[in-house]
Amino acid sequence: MFSRRVVIIVAIVALILANVVIISISAGSQRDQGFFQKLAMEVLAPCQQGMTTVLQYVRDTWTRYFDLVLIGEENQRLRTRIQALDKRINDLKESEIANRRLRALLSFKSVVSDETIPAEVIGKEPSRWCKTIMINKGISDGVQRGMPVVSSDGIVGQVINVSHQYSKVLLIIDQNSAVDALIQRTRSRGIVEGLGRGLCRFEYVLRKADVQEGDVVISSGLGGIFPKGLRCGYVTAAVRDDSGIFQEVHLQPYVDFAKLEEVFVVMRKEAFFADGEDVP
Amino acid sequence: MKGFLFFLAVGTIIFVAQTTLLAAPGLQVFRYDLFIPFVVFMALYQPVHVGLSLAILFGFVMDVFSGGVFGLFLFTYFWFFCLIRAGLEFLDLQNSILETVLVLLGVLAENLIVIFFLSFFGREDGIRFWALQNVVVQVFVAGVTAPLIFLTFSKSGKRARKSQRDFGLTIDE
Questions:
Q1: How far apart are CA A272 and CA A269, in angstroms?
Q2: For A170, which residue in chain B has the nearest alpha carbon?
Q3: Do B68 and A130 touch (CB under 8 A)?
Q4: Which of A138, A176, A184, B129 would you call most buried, defined as having the most Cβ atoms within 10 angstroms of its Cβ?
Q5: Which tens digits make up the pLDDT trace of A75-113?
Q6: A168, B68: Cβ pair inside 8 Å?
Q7: Is-above-0.90 flag for pTM?
Q8: ipTM for the whole complex
Q9: pLDDT tens sequence across A33-45
Q10: Which residues 6+ apart lie within 8 Å of B146 measured at CB?
């Protein structure tokens, strides 16, 4: 009755209409999911979950790797920054210490009436038996042999050799050093001599002179080298023998020669020695 | 010439270390004259013209920077070098025990010479306890460190010679 072609067309149109109707009905209702839907979900969801987990793991690993690389770089950057900050802190500490030292030196400059020039200690005695230091000021700065060298703590020593830019200073603790001095409290005179091992001896102090432990010994200014009133050290022991006209007085210098970093060369014109003359 | 320059650099490093790093308060106590092992090494293992010239040069430098009697180190190194060279004619001194013994003798001799001159020209009335203590410490430290110093000298010398060979330079020995 109907041709085959007409039957197919009608069937297709009917299916389309049926789909439209079913979609319209299901869109309008909120019914529970059916058994097969649930089954499908229960079977496939774990696979989804597994795959998602794997993908998440790969993604996390990938991200963490890059994060680690970035963190490593950041760590390095921070370490560099910490080092720079540490260095800065150290520099600031050094500046603070230097500042205190220089303030002390500046206040000391007002004590010494003569012109002074600051110098840095650049080296120490190569042998253990003598006590000298090298400073970074020489002939070009006006330094000459025989000039006194002092610090804010007191007398350091005396220039014994000069080159164009450097000088060698004989410390007062050297055995060949001598400073005309007096006890600040009683004005008893004597000569401060080095003992070669970080200490001094106050020689030629009369036996009758009143010397007590802790007495401050200052330069007398009479030697013609060191300005008057500079501290040499303090008395650690005074021994009076039964005989003799002098007493034995031991001194501890105020200057810590082991930690000496900056000194002042006193530009005393009258302190010069003629060439060849021995330094007292 | 290369050997001379190499040990000139080594000597300079020793000098700078001795007057700065080793003169620091903590290390000062254990300090002894490191030029003694240097001179012994020069006398035993280097040609006369290299060793003697460096011994004299660094003796001079030490005298310039030291507050002691000028010439003390110069002549000490000179005579020490000559004595060891003369000893080489009769004895086999080139072994690690005798090297150390030579360093100990050198340190001891140098200290005694310095003490003698200080007593003679200075005010120190002979050898006192602290001086003796000073010498004992120096000799002890020298005894402990001398083999290490010799090892360093000989290793660095060999390495320097190898570098010279690698770069196709002539060897000055």
A1: 6
A2: B67
A3: yes
A4: A176
A5: 888 998 998 898 888 888 888 888 887 777 766 666 666
A6: no
A7: no
A8: 0.73
A9: 566 656 666 666 6
A10: B37, B99, B100, B103, B104
